């Protein structure tokens, strides 16, 4: 099981400071969608240059022109790029084909997918690398989480790795871990903590027990 740190509400210098604090405890750095909106793919490049031994995920949430988005994020140094599960299959196939050429990986974000079980099975068959259940900020504000969806994709996904994101905190991590995803994604649960390093270290310890 791996831990991904989502950086959403920071600029590039702040992102570097956070990663410096928690680098020993994380496997993947996510350049979150808000950071890409604010700073562009330059954020991916600067973070990859600063932390070359860590994997970097570009959370582009691609919805169209899958191949092009993956090509541009790959040029910036991303190792993993996100595509939306609600996209057309042709978009996901385009992303996967480009990722194979560039030796990169595709994560499909299932945010707002209505029938998680059947769509996850379809997406799994398209050869993606990760399928991620996700309660985004707007769903979190309505008190939702994706714990049940994780159990659902664990039942139907045969080849992709499974991931979960959305509002995960130290207190809720044991419940998430018990469902055995391959990857746990945490943003505010670490970046919003007064002692980020201590929280990341505790999360790392819990996750690496599995
Ligand atoms: O993808 C995300 C969200 O849609 C904003 O872009 C977050 O990175 C993801 O939800 C993880 O962050 P937390 O919910 O703060 O753990």
UniProtKB/TrEMBL annotation:
Reaction equations catalysed: D-ribulose 5-phosphate + formaldehyde = D-arabino-hex-3-ulose 6-phosphate
Key words, A-Z: Carbohydrate metabolism, Lyase, One-carbon metabolism
EC number: 4.1.2.43
Orotidine 5'-phosphate decarboxylase domain residues: 2-203
Pathway(s) it belongs to: One-carbon metabolism; formaldehyde assimilation via RuMP pathway; D-fructose 6-phosphate from D-ribulose 5-phosphate and formaldehyde: step 1/2
Molecular functions per Gene Ontology: 3-dehydro-L-gulonate-6-phosphate decarboxylase activity; hexulose-6-phosphate synthase activity; orotidine-5'-phosphate decarboxylase activity
Gene Ontology biological-process entries: 'de novo' pyrimidine nucleobase biosynthetic process; L-ascorbic acid catabolic process; one-carbon metabolic process
Signal peptide start and end residues: none
Gene3D superfamilies recorded: Aldolase class I
Domain of life: Bacteria
A Pfam family hit: OMPdecase
Family named by the database record: Belongs to the HPS/KGPDC family. HPS subfamily.
Protein name: 3-hexulose-6-phosphate synthase
Taxonomic path: Bacteria, Bacillati, Bacillota, Bacilli, Bacillales
